[in-house]
Amino acid sequence: MFKVIHISDTHLRETDPGSRSGWHETTQAIRTTRPNLVIHTGDIVLDEPENARDHAFARDELSGLDVEWLAIPGNHDIGDGPPRGGPICEDLLQRFESNYGAAHWAKDIGDWRLVGINSMLFGLGSAREAEEWAWLGSTLRQAGRRPVALFMHKPPFVMAPDEAEQGSAAIPVEARARFWDVVTGSSVRVVACGHRHEYRVLHRDGVSVVWAPTTGDQLDERTAPVDSPVALSGVLEMIFYGETFMHRLIPFGVGRQSA
Ligand SMILES: [Fe+2]
Ligand SMILES: [Fe+2]
User: Fold this and answer.
1) Domain locations in the chain?
2) C-alpha 9 – ligand 1 centre gap (Å)
3) Bridge partners (DSSP) listed for residue 207
């Protein structure tokens, strides 16, 4: 059995009480559940990708965990892609890698392969994006029949890979169908992401898509078609057992009403 604690959207800043209290609960949950690995799916820092002080604080906090951890970037770490953002700057990506390690990675654990990708590159049309697609394709081919859990910041889609929605809730519309073709043409069984600050699970084409909530207090947005006013922060406990995958939400505090 291999246990992962999946965390996302910590939005850390040393002077921000909401993210600090959520981080405190996160470290408590990690201590209690004793995972083999912690995976952070991005939006590590509050809201300013260029803020070196926030990154230094977040890096020190992550480094203080007494367990191995891996991270991938979110829009608040390296800038946003289309349709909302400008180009993702090479220096922010390099800063991410010097603070948190490679922006994509693969790790074999038991029967499974865990893969983390930099989904912020999708839709940019850059050489970096082309490299990311090539790396993803070869990493999944090398997995063979080994089941894969794929980690990314933005969801691959909200409800369906062919949706035309232009908003920034998911990866850019021009990348969704291509990404899902890659996923369904491989042994990916789980796609785990963050970005929307809410916990959600959907199933499509034999793949489970799991959204981790934020660990912090930014709980005022809800993604259609869910309109429940109840929002929870927390972390996900993932268990890989043979070829079986299970997960559960470890919520922080009680359900809070959104504004
Ligand atoms: Fe976020
Ligand atoms: Fe995000």
Assistant:
1) 2-254
2) 4
3) 204
pLDDT by residue (tens digit) across 196-228?
Answer: 999 999 999 999 999 999 999 999 888 989 888
240 Cα–ligand 1 center, Å: 26
Query: CB–CB of 50/57 below 8 Å?
Result: no
Note the ligand closest to the C-alpha atom of 46.
1
> Order of strands, edge to edge, in the sheet holding 244-257?
69-71, 37-40, 2-7, 230-241, 244-257
- Give CA–CA dist 117/200, Å, rounded: 20
Instruction: Report CA(76)–ligand 2 centroid distance (Å).
Output: 6
* pLDDT tens profile 50-105: 999 999 999 999 999 999 999 999 999 999 887 777 667 789 999 999 999 999 99
Domain 2-254 grouped into CATH 3.60.21.10: yes
